Records
---
Amino acid sequence: MTPITHVEGRRLALSNLDKILYPATGFTKGEVLHYYASVAPVLLPHLRDRPLSFLRYPDGAEGETFFAKNVPPGTPDWVRVATVPRSARDTTSARQVVVDDLPSLMWAANLVTEFHTPQWRAEAPAVADRLVLDLDPGEPAGIAECCEVALMLRERLAAGGLTAFAKTSGSKGLHLLVPLTGAPSREVTAYAKELAVAAEQTAPELVVHRMAKRLRGGKVFVDFSQNSASKTTATPYTLRARPHPTVSAPLTWEEVATRGEDDRLPGLRIEADEAASRVERYGDLLAPLVTGEAAAPLPGS
């Protein structure tokens, strides 16, 4: 029998709670749901008013994964759905889930999904309130090289009056997030590309701004393309479909600087239990992204 629970007055059927989703550690679906309930106070502000893309892994991290943007069949009528443009060139619209509250979060988590969100809100499609740079190392480069590039980019952003925040990708690399007062996504993408190109010109032995695999060996690919209005990035605090229950977790700049010197130190592959305890210790290190207190205009706009 499927367990029934009530969350803030909403009735939820939570299924297969004993199912192991991360075979390497034995981490179960019930533990996934417990994790999301634990971090909900800091996760929800990063989800709120942002149309969701789901990266589903219902058979676990070693099973099939697939992206879904459309509203899933059987979505409760109390889950918010937003109508948003498919793209700047497409006049048609899409309907996507928006997770604004704890019941909606627990319903979505029960689907077994990574949460991915755009850099804009449903009320203002293609007007970005943040810039993102995804730092992806090509072997034999690793997290130490990502940290070195992150520090370089942080300085460049600061020179333009922008404040950068760091988080793990939950996979191999890092994400840099920059709060903005609002700018067209195409302009943010162009500026992010300028940053990536400049970083490559400064350190060509370390940085590449193009995606081609043949160029990325031993370097850090600075992916600026996720600023496109049609693209999404792993939301802060989301679990990832990796061998271990890793989280796209915020970092302090002290941690980034220290790990940049020695990638053998712990702390940059953050799993669910540690992520929850870090929230208790630090609160939300990315809170300025949602409060707007650190937001600044895009240089030149």
---
Amino acid sequence: MHPTPTPIPTPPPALRPRALFAMGRRHRDTLFTPAAVERLTTYVDIDPDHVVEDFAREPALDDVEILITSWGCPVLDETVLARLPSLKAVVHAAGSVKHHVTQACWDRGILVSSAPAANAVPVAEYTVAAILFANKRVLEIGGLYREHRAPLDWSRRFPGFGNYRRTVGVVGASLVGRKVIELLRPYDLDLLLADPYVSTLRAAAMGVRLVEPDELVEASDVVSLHAPELPETRHLMDARRLGLMRDGATLINTARGSLVDTDALTAEAATGRIHAVIDVTEPEVLPAASPLYTLPNVLLTPHIAGSLGGELHRITSSALDEIERYCAGEPFAHAVHHAALATSA
């Protein structure tokens, strides 16, 4: 008989830092299940039912040391921070912090963590599935099979289709872009990368060949976008660059809608010359009359590549790990650095 291990007692609230949820209520309910809350309360003193959506309506917040944020968090500007004199850390249970972490946070030296690495996993998985299906012409063949309900000469209709020795161009070595490259390594594909911040040596270590964007677009059977939303990346895929794509090539966008000129893509796709798998658009929801909804060579999905359903629990786990590190006096594993925000999502 093995002795029953003695449970580790939970420290009293006075010895745990005070924490507060700041996010949309529905996101709190989705991300922090009862099991997650149980784990959270072993690290911090928190009222799990108290969720801040508007700091102006909150009473005294003098003792709050950690803000646990997610989608829907109010902006943390100077006025809000003045009401949070003890705030030392923001742990963001989502991706980008640009929407709520302001210069005032950095000026005060507040530590910031985020979970883009956790959210990158499902986006990369979606992208890899789209790449493999695109080269195999799965959606088109499935549509024809549904229409004819009889065997056809697929090789004649789609000469050269398949994934062997096809060229995939990845635009942007972001967290998602790097994960896509990692997941594609087992396949017999030729991988190209365009990223102004990556050296030739680093690209070679990643198993890709570094090229300029135009060369990538011209040489690739699939062009997959993973660049951040910045002024210089707006309409990265404009009419000119879309025109450089090979006949029958596929454009995949799981990054930001602004990277693609929607009007130019609509015009190019309407010719049937190229294909597209588009998960993000500009505007976020296209007008109901947009041809992109119905073109047979376009797969349009409603921004579902990122974490959904059970995948959200990976984000929660990442945030809880960061809170545990903070409470143990350890540095964040996924710290956000102010200087890096200029070239990241």
